[in-house]
Amino acid sequence: MQKEKYQFRGKGSPARDFPTDGSLKKQYLSKVLHLYFEEGMDYRSISEILPVSFASIGYWIRTFVKEYKSKTEIMEAISNLDKSSREQSREGTDKPNSGSSKDSTSLESELVKLKEELKYQRLRADAYDEMINVAEEQFNIKIRKKVGAKQ
């Protein structure tokens, strides 16, 4: 990762309007994590360098640490974030629909996972259907609504 020179904003810096659409997190998350975990800076120092409040920085770091338990997992995730942010910045406006930078193997594994989940949900729906059939037989009541019934 190329080292960047950071300028402190200081206390006399003008107030800025912060976007509320999550674009700050997309833009600065990898920098915040790098400065916190690799450079050892605290929330306030990072907020003086980057245009992100220290409260947001603290929230981002806490939620990030909850996802990854060990230090090695954290460092791997930071390097993956750095790689994906560099790829997205390189692609820029070349590909307008380049929202996901997943490779084909991860897409295939996601497809397999979704197919298994669909199979499970269909089995679950069939089990509920059979449960209704058994209840209708045992208690001699109609549970299902008739098609075309008046309302």
Protein model, in words:
This protein is mainly α. It folds into two domains: about 1-95, no CATH class; about 100-145. The protein has five helices and no strands. It has helices at about 25-40, 45-50, 55-65, 70-90, 105-140. Helix 2 packs across helix 3. It is elongated and about 70 Å long.
Describe the secondary-structure layout.
Elements: H1 23-38, H2 43-49, H3 54-67, H4 71-91, H5 104-139
Question: Which descriptors would you attach to this protein?
Answer:
mainly alpha, 2 domains
Brief characterization of the structure:
By secondary structure, the protein is mainly alpha-helical. 62% of the residues lie in helices and 0% in strands.
For the record, give the distance between the C-alpha atoms at the N and C termini, rounded to a whole number. 66 Å
What share of residues are in beta strands?
under 5%
Mean pLDDT: 75
Number of separate structural domains = 2
The run of helices and strands is: HHHHH
What spatial form do the alpha-carbon principal axes imply? Answer: elongated
Count of separate DSSP helical elements: 5
Structural class comes to: mainly alpha
Portion of residues within helices:
55-70%
Quaternary status: single chain
The biggest beta sheet reads: none
The overall strand count is 0
